[in-house]
Design goal:
The protein is mainly beta. It is built from three helices and 33 strands.
Length: 525
């Protein structure tokens, strides 16, 4: 038998084993690489998601602290105008972040910079407040200079990964989709409870619109993770109106005679905020919108008495006998549409003066009184109260006020009188004289009173005032015109005083409603 020599095949198994080992090593290496890549993808995804929710946390801190009821409220710091070189921007800064981090070195080397701001306020050929315009989805390269922002620290109970939250009012062109379709207009944006509306030219604020609204705020938040993940989210938020004053003359009482308009008086309205230079009588005076109302019954009487506006009542909105009907009439008066209130209108009660004024009697004649604290004041002759400005009014604290001997009380600027009324039945009595507000703006002469005493008002040739006494019995005397508004427990206008409601004073009361999220978006910057 012939035998084969296999010595040449010696070592083949070793080579095959090495090849298989290399193959298995390559497969294992590929699997390890794939696992590492998957881990990296998952890590990046987790980091991106964490950054997103961290940015959301920033917007929610701002949204909560904007409420007046928050112990760390920033409501007093909120922007009152659209951003300008002088202000209008508030930043909440996380621990370890400075204003310089946010507002300087707007380059890719600084991940904390606000490189989105120029897209929210892009109006003008050179950008808003001097910023350089950039195309959509491109990071800003410049920010304004000067004192255009203020800052406040975060109060989060532990450090969060969001770095800053910016709060501004919203402009009509703050997004690529202007509210009114006109991308070149930078009007403030208002929320009326149903939709956003651009504030029309000539209207001073959102609450003066029809229907009335409140400002829309842009809340923008940036989060940056240690991995470098960076996310920006933006909310549009606003509070919903709690409801404005149902009428320029409004009685909070629930009885049948809460409000009486008699003696051939008529009502109408004007708007001191839109008439340009206020005149006497107002140049936009109209016999419309002279609304009145009460939580109780409303009486209207006289042969030519005319309520040229709505009549609101919590009782049944019909004419007849109280309490079955909310409005009772005698004679042949004119009344506007009747309105059934869904719930009682409860205005805020002004606080009692603190400290209280003296209770001593004092008389002033033919003089000028500086702001200060006075007792039971009687005025004779011509007495002037030194007025301030709307942002810095002159404050007078009185226990009571009495005009005597045809006295004239002159108001020559913004004046607020806070009445204490301690041990007084009648806290304001102007029947022995008259007052003249030379500014022709009712909100420049405000009388606040928290108690339940009597307030007797008269007017003169310039009787512009706001009477805020929701627990008092207010009566009008003298048959003259009265411009402004008045709130009392009961209101008696049986002396034929014509009343003209200043629509600029129809400011909704402070709202403690949560800020409603109108929209939420993530920004690609």
């Amino acid at each position: 038998m012939k035998m084969k020599n296999h010595h040449r095949e010696r070592g083949f198994s070793l080579l095959l084993s090495i090849f298989m080992l290399m193959l298995l090593t390559a497969v294992a290496g590929g699997m390890i690489f794939m696992a590492a890549t998957e881990t990296s993808i998952n890590s990046n995804f987790k980091s991106e998601e964490t950054a997103y929710f961290a940015a959301r946390a920033g917007t929610e801190e701002a949204r909560d602290r904007m409420l007046t009821t928050n112990l760390n409220s920033i409501s007093g710091m909120l922007p009152t105008t659209l951003p300008t070189a002088a202000g209008g921007v508030l930043y909440i800064l996380q621990n370890g972040v400075t204003a310089a981090n946010v507002t300087t070195n707007v380059t890719s080397s600084n991940p904390l910079a606000d490189d989105e701001f120029c897209h929210d306020f892009p109006y003008g050929g050179t950008g808003y407040a001097g910023m350089t315009p950039v195309p959509p989805n491109v990071r800003c390269t410049t920010l304004p200079s000067g004192g255009w922002y203020t800052t406040t620290p975060s109060v989060a109970p532990y450090p969060l990964d969001y770095k800053w939250t910016r709060i501004t009012k919203k402009s009509n062109n703050s997004t690529p989709y202007p509210v009114n379709g006109i991308s070149t207009q930078s009007n403030e944006v208002c929320w009326n409870g149903i939709s956003e509306e651009a504030l029309p030219a000539g209207i001073a604020s959102c609450n003066l619109m029809t229907p009335a609204g409140l400002p829309v705020y842009l809340v923008t938040s940036l989060a940056v993770m240690p991995s470098g993940a960076r996310r920006i989210v933006q909310q549009e938020i606003a509070q919903t109106l709690t409801g404005g004053l149902p009428g320029g003359l409004f009685a909070t009482g629930t009885g049948c005679g809460a409000l009486n308009v008699q003696g051939n008086a008529r009502t109408g309205s004007f708007n001191s905020a839109t008439e340009g230079t206020p005149t006497n009588p107002p140049n936009n005076l109209t016999l419309t919108n002279g609304d009145v109302g009460a939580n109780g019954g409303v009486g209207v009487g006289g042969t030519s008495t005319a309520v040229n506006g709505h009549v609101s009542t919590l009782l049944p909105a019909s004419i007849g006998s109280c309490p079955t009907n909310g409005v009772s009439t005698n004679g042949t008066p004119v009344t506007g549409p009747l309105v059934q209130l869904a719930s009682p209108y409860t205005p805020p009660v002004p606080p009692m003066p603190n400290p209280l004024p003296p209770t001593t009697n004092v008389t002033y004649r033919n003089t000028t009184l500086p702001p200060g604290s006075y007792g039971n004041v009687t005025l004779q002759g011509n007495v002037t109260l030194t007025g301030g400005t709307p942002s810095n009014p002159a404050i007078y604290t009185l226990n009571s006020l009495n005009l005597n001997g045809n006295a004239t009380l002159n108001i020559n600027g913004t004046v607020v009188i806070n009445i204490a009324g301690v041990n007084q039945t009648t806290v304001v009595d102007m029947t022995g004289g008259s007052f003249a507000n030379s500014t022709n703006v009712p909100s420049n002469f405000v009388i606040n009173y928290a108690g339940s005493g009597n307030v007797k008002m008269t007017g003169g040739s310039q009787s512009y005032a706001v009477v805020n006494a929701p627990n008092a019995a207010i009566s009008f005397h003298g048959g003259s015109d009265f411009y402004g508004n008045a709130i009392g427990r009961t209101i008696d206008d049986q002396g034929g005083t014509n009343f003209y409601w200043d629509m600029a004073t129809n400011v909704p009361g402070p709202s403690n409603n949560s800020y409603y999220e109108i929209s939420l978006r993530e920004l690609a910057y």
